[in-house]
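Researcher: We're teaching a course module on how sequence relates to structure. For the next exercise, students receive a sequence and then see the predicted structure as tokens, so they can try to spot secondary structure elements on their own. Here is the exercise chain.
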Amino acid sequence: MLSRETTYSQARANLASILDQVYDQREILVIKRDNQKNVALIAEDELSSILETIYLLPIARKCQAPL
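Model: And here is the predicted structure for the students to work with:
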């Protein structure tokens, strides 16, 4: 999964095409904001997949642990 960066102004001016790119290319877009914390834009199904993996990793580790 690749990520790229853009400014808030560029994201605002090109929002529709940026949303399509984030979804179609499965990338994470970091939006840089002046004097504010940056945010990341990610497709919903990609986020769901990441969260599911985070949830399942400890369970998988327990299953592999010797008794």
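Model: If you want an answer key for the exercise: The CA atoms of residues 7 and 32 lie 5 Å apart. The longest helix spans residues 44-64.
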